[in-house]
């Protein structure tokens, strides 16, 4: 899918180039990144701008309610507990494709833009990237699997509440940045007034690397864990994209850069490519699953074992 570049997107791009985000780094990122290979639509299928969290309507009110509960409950201690529990990978054994199919039983209440089954979103994202970056097969597969962690909502995976699975993510253990969506609801989060956690660096040190930063628990962190622990051969940039794709404060607002190391700076360039496809490919354009399945099966075989522990 190739859509036309609209003004807001260009503005955003200009911004990023000014902030040096899209400057090519030793040929690491293909050229169409800087020149704008992907063209994003202005409005979603509901006729609103994408991620218009401040609009007042019924759908957006329930999204705000989602974030209110999310922001109160995602604490440092909660994430620590969840990571310990899910690190065990003792919930299920299945292939990547089986998980894609399972995901169709999932509804994401945090998403103001998506009205399609989850597998459509995975394939729309992957196919859009594939069109613009035909040689980066690892990125196609990354797109296909990036939201698989949403199976945490299903009974076999602990049936976690929405606030513990979906939505934007943010670091714990240091101050919440004001750019995080519906920031005001953090005021009732127990970590908000904890002096250990409410300074700019909190428990971290400058440049410590995002790998060492605890982020709110959800489908990103879980899928990252599953891919890594099952020995995927996907490159580090893929794992970075999976783990931080919901980290809008970082990849879109530019917050928390002081915690990044050099590796993160490189990986962030890929994430900034990815996020556009993740967000703007959400549309009613259906992908023929059976037609594209053989291609994705070949990628799964290349980068993953046949069965994974979840
Ligand atoms: O509503 C969404 C959705 O749940 C995503 O899958 C995600 O990655 C987000 O960042 C988010 O805000
Ligand atoms: Fe996601
Ligand atoms: Fe997504």
TrEMBL record:
Its EC number is 1.13.99.1. GO terms for biological process: inositol catabolic process; L-ascorbic acid biosynthetic process. It is an enzyme of class 1 (oxidoreductase). Pathway: Polyol metabolism; myo-inositol degradation into D-glucuronate; D-glucuronate from myo-inositol: step 1/1. Binds 2 iron ions per subunit. Its main location: cytoplasm. GO terms for cellular component: cytoplasm. It catalyses: myo-inositol + O2 = D-glucuronate + H2O + H(+). Its cofactor is Fe cation. Fe cation binds at residues 121, 146-147, 219, 245, 278. Coiled coil: none annotated. The keyword Iron applies. Substrate binds at residues 51, 108-110, 150, 167-168, 245-246. SUPFAM superfamilies: HD-domain/PDEase-like (SSF109604). One of its GO terms (molecular function) is iron ion binding. Pfam families: MIOX (PF05153). It is found in: Cytoplasm. Belongs to the myo-inositol oxygenase family. This is Inositol oxygenase. It comes from Heracleum sosnowskyi.
């Amino acid at each position: 899918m190739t859509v036309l570049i609209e003004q807001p997107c260009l503005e955003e791009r200009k911004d990023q180039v000014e902030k040096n985000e899209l400057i090519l780094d030793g040929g690491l990122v293909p050229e169409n990144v800087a020149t704008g290979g992907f063209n994003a639509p202005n409005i979603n299928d509901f006729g609103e701008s994408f991620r218009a969290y401040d609009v007042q309507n019924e759908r957006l009110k329930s999204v705000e309610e989602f974030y209110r509960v999310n922001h109160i409950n995602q604490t440092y201690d909660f994430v620590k507990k969840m990571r310990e529990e899910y690190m065990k990978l003792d919930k299920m054994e299945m292939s990547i494709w089986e998980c894609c199919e399972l995901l169709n039983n999932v509804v994401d209440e945090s998403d103001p833009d998506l009205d399609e089954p989850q597998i459509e979103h995975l394939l729309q994202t992957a196919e859009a990237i594939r069109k613009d970056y035909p040689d980066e097969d690892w990125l196609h597969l990354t797109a296909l699997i990036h939201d698989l962690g949403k199976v945490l909502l299903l009974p076999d995976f602990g049936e976690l509440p929405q606030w513990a699975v979906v939505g934007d993510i943010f670091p714990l253990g240091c101050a919440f940045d004001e750019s995080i969506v519906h920031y005001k609801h953090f005021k009732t989060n127990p970590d908000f007034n904890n002096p250990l956690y409410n300074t700019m660096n909190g428990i971290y040190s400058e440049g410590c690397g995002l790998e060492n930063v605890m982020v709110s628990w959800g489908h990103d962190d879980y899928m990252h864990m599953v891919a890594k622990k099952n020995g995927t051969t996907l490159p580090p940039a893929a794992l970075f994209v999976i783990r931080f794709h919901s980290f809008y404060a970082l990849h879109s607002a530019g917050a928390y850069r002081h915690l990044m190391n050099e590796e993160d700076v490189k990986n962030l360039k890929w994430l900034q490519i990815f996020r556009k496809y993740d967000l703007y490919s959400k549309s009613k354009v259906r992908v023929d699953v059976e037609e594209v399945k053989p291609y994705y099966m070949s990628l799964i075989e290349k980068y993953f074992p046949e069965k994974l522990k979840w």
